[in-house]
Protein: Translesion DNA synthesis-associated protein ImuA
Organism: Luteimonas deserti
Amino acid sequence: MAEAQPLDALLAARTVWHAGRGTPTMATGEPTGHAALDAVLPERGWPRGALTELLLPADGVGELALLMPTLARMTAAGERVVLVAPPYLPYAPAWQAGGLDLMCLDIVEAPPRDALWAFEQCLRSAACAAVIGWPSSADDRALRRLQVAADSGGSCAFALRDRRHAVNASPAALRLEFQPEAAAWHVRKCRGAQPPAAAIRLTH
């Protein structure tokens, strides 16, 4: 017979869980590089093989700084990162300053009518560690296709969208909304757990 273990030890090892406190969590995500954010996400990082939505009040509120530690780590490991139809031409020195290896960064130029298709194909290819797109007019069906494609290819998919879409349901595994009044990120949805009540203010 196996030796009995104290309950505290089992809880610390996350082999049992408290009823009413959600499901046990495992560190299976891609670390965000922001300890405060990792601490509240169910997988302790960006979900792999899944779609993450970043809901923004405007472009340039810190969304790329949020992603940069992850993208830098991926490219340092020789993994491919793809930007699909970015609204502005990426400023290479800033990306390099953020630690990104430009040799592992690809930019796909596409008109709006083709950008969603390109986004989906990059995700399905299984050749990209992360794919970032700006699908401004994507409906639920289009987002679901992106989620399925990310799952199929095992990529981290990031959709940067206007915060007005926050009121709509989404198939994304994770949704974060930037709140400019608090300069913080609010987790609106996270697959596998209840979103934290408090917004996360990140320090750089």
User: Anything to note?
Assistant: The chain has one domain: 46-190. Helices lie at 7-12, 35-40, 63-76, 92-97, 112-124, 140-153. Confidence is low (pLDDT under 50) at residues 10-25. Strands lie at 50-56, 81-84, 105-108, 130-133, 156-162, 174-179, 184-190.
